[in-house]
Amino acid sequence: MRQTHRPLTTVALALSLFMAALEMTVVSTAMPTVVSDLGGIQHYAWVFTAYMLASTITVPIFGKLADLYGRKPVLLFGIGLFLVGSVASGLSPSMEWLIAFRTLQGLGAGAMQPITLTVIGDIYNLEERANVQGVFSGVWGLSGLLGPLAGGLIVKWLSWHWVFYINVPVGLGAAVLLVTFFHERIEKRRPSLDIGGAVLLSLGVVALLLGAQGEGNPVVPLMLAAVLLVAFVLVERKVKEPLMPPAIFARPAIAIASVCSALFAAAMFGATTYVPLFVQGVLGGTPTQAGGMITPMLVGWPVCSLISGRLIVKVGFRPLILGGLGLAAVSNVVMALVLKPGAPLLLPEVAMGLFGCGLGFTATALLIAVQTSVGWELRGVVTASNMFFRTIGGAIGVGVMGGVLVARLTADPRVPVSAANELLGPEHGRGLAEAVLRQLSGSLAQGLAINFWIMAATSVLAFGFSLFFPRVMPAASPSTGETLMH
Question: What gap in Å lies between CA 177 and CA 420, rounded to an integer?
Fold first, then answer.
């Protein structure tokens, strides 16, 4: 059995993270331009929702597969899917095709996100993980700095299609390094796959997100989601190898971490989706300026994540979680108050930076808390469950906000929704009649103002739930490096 080369394996994992993080800011920056080219602003939220829907459904499935078959094959499969989806997204001839291929991209992300973090938990103990977290925080910060700049330059000098193509060399490099330098020993056994649970969870999440969109009659899909998810819980209590063992949620640290992750992710994904749209559609900013609003958040996150990783062994999880979510709540309330038509960008940029700082303190502490509460055989599952609640919270949040935005844009039947596509184009709707332009700008601003208050509400709720997080301190076993919760 060859030994894993930890530094080069870490480089491969960092490349995977860089690819996923860069994609978030690049796509957010380019989306207003994509809408002006392909049309379909009424489907704007689905470009993000479809991606998160696919990754949400598959995160627990891939997490369980990683525990059964090993991390390496599942991670490589995810990278492959992500790259195929990226190339196909760049070739999309319409908004509908872009949504379909973003779904494929999301399927790959469903494997990449949890398993990358699981491998870090496997090959490093708690003290080492604090230092490695600094490396990964730097990668996240670099992608946050490069994303808006790269997105703006790509849209200006090439075309929006290339924001998807840039994933290919990064993903291929990560795959080659993983194949060559990452080795693991898997216990040979006959796994029992929870097919019924996977189907029920997938259908339940789809129904839940369709209901969250608020289109048509949302009661029917929401009722269907409730039935399917209850059935999923009942199945998980009986099968031999459940996707999400119900027993893990009996642990307060995992249960509270799941709720807090879902709530803060709704605000986080809402910010990355709708703040750039506000800057470009309401304030008339450029794609680079729109993406630049996200940069403070994606810089503050890694800096405070590095600090959080080093403080965990000294102060424990709870102070960092409470402090981080408190800071996130305050910053979101500030953004809801100041993001108005004609607003200067300095104050919301500061608020976005503080939001990122709060998420940096929180996300690191929550993730390490759930990972250190179980052994290797469940680490993939609990990591995936944390990612699952984070992505489902983000997907539901973006879906609800997308429904609010569409409702505002379609409130006046005299104004065609297609005119909103021109509002986001390079001319900022200068070809539209003055009355139409004024109506659209007002509707867009009103819809986004509601969304910013939704983000503030979810952040405040996350802080409220964090007050119930148990007072636990991490401790490392000197003989094995495995970590325990005390």
Answer: 45
The model's pTM: 0.71
Q: How far apart are CA 269 and CA 304, in angstroms?
A: 19
Tokens 């600094």 locate to 134
Radius of gyration in angstroms for the set of CA atoms belonging to the chain, rounded to a whole number:
22
Reference 458, options 243, 169, 262; nearest CA is 262
CA 59 to each of CA 35, 400, 436: distance values in angstroms, whole numbers, following the listed order: 29, 21, 43
Distance from C-alpha of 335 to C-alpha of 132, rounded to nearest angstrom: 32
- CA distances to 50, 481, 482, 484 from 128, in Å: 36, 10, 11, 15
DSSP one-letter string for 333-402: HHHHHH--TT--SHHHHHHHHHHHHHHHHHHHHHHHHHHTTS-HHHHHHHHHHHHHHHHHHHHHHHHHHH
Element containing residue 485 per DSSP (H, E): strand 483-485
**Whole-angstrom distance, CA of residue 181 vs CA of residue 19:** 19
pLDDT digits (tens, 9 = 90+) for 414-472: 666 666 655 555 555 555 666 666 777 777 788 888 999 999 999 999 999 999 998 86
Instruction: Evaluate whether 66 touches 327 at the Cβ level (below 8 Å).
Output: no
Region 147-158: what's the mean pLDDT?
74
Q: pLDDT by residue (tens digit) across 326-369?
A: 999 999 999 899 888 877 777 778 888 899 899 888 888 888 88
